[in-house]
Amino acid sequence: MTLFRNYIFIVICALCVAACDTAPGVEDLSDTPPQIHPASSFVAPRALDIVPLTVKDGFVESSLTVSVSFSDADRDVSTLFVVVQSSIAGEDPIGELETNVSGNGEATFQVPLRIPEGAAGVYQVVAFASDTRGAISNQVFGTFEVLAGNEPPVIIQIDIPDTITRPAAGQPAISVPMVVQVSDPDGLQNVQKVEVQVNGAVSLQLCDDGGVGTCNAGFGVSGDVTANDGAFTLTIQLDANNAPGDNFFAFVVEDRAGLRSDVQTRTITVN
What rounded mean pLDDT belongs to the chain? Predict the structure, then answer.
């Protein structure tokens, strides 16, 4: 009888072990995502001067050296990804790379870059990995800076009326476009913003967006005719309730390096 009880106990234990994916006390490493190690990863160069480089179709082509250290508990890292994000929100990355790896280790590779002419600024580099089951690692971030020239942007021409007559009471408002033609020695892509300060108080932006965007909340579309031609536009509305008198407008252009043009002022007299 004792022998029979011992046999039943052994069978039950065997069934319990067989019903488990892993034996008790053994960690399942297959669910562990890969890891990128920041201390052993780097980006080079830290700064890239694009002035001496050849411009083709409005872009400069170069490359970035990225070294990434990676590991996984079950050594099944399969793919590394690197994305060099644009310095302007919403724009496409200036560089991307997807490369196959295996096991644990460190990989150094060249990420091709396609940088808009004159697009100076600090760019963020993001690296991460996946394993053979599609598990995604942590992200590691680095930066590098694109350097352009040290000459500020220039206001070439300002087109606004000198005098405006208010519409009569009950009549529709009048649209008044203000157009500022600008240039930059490093290319129009290096222009960060064109601003106008109205009567020494409110600052508004002018847009070179083809009239499809809104760069001033509450102002609707800019009224710009052609996108990316260097003519930045702001359209204001004048109605019967606007006060008569002189209104002063101060225009300035700023590039991605923070260099600013000379301020140019204009006056519109409202009758």
Answer: 84
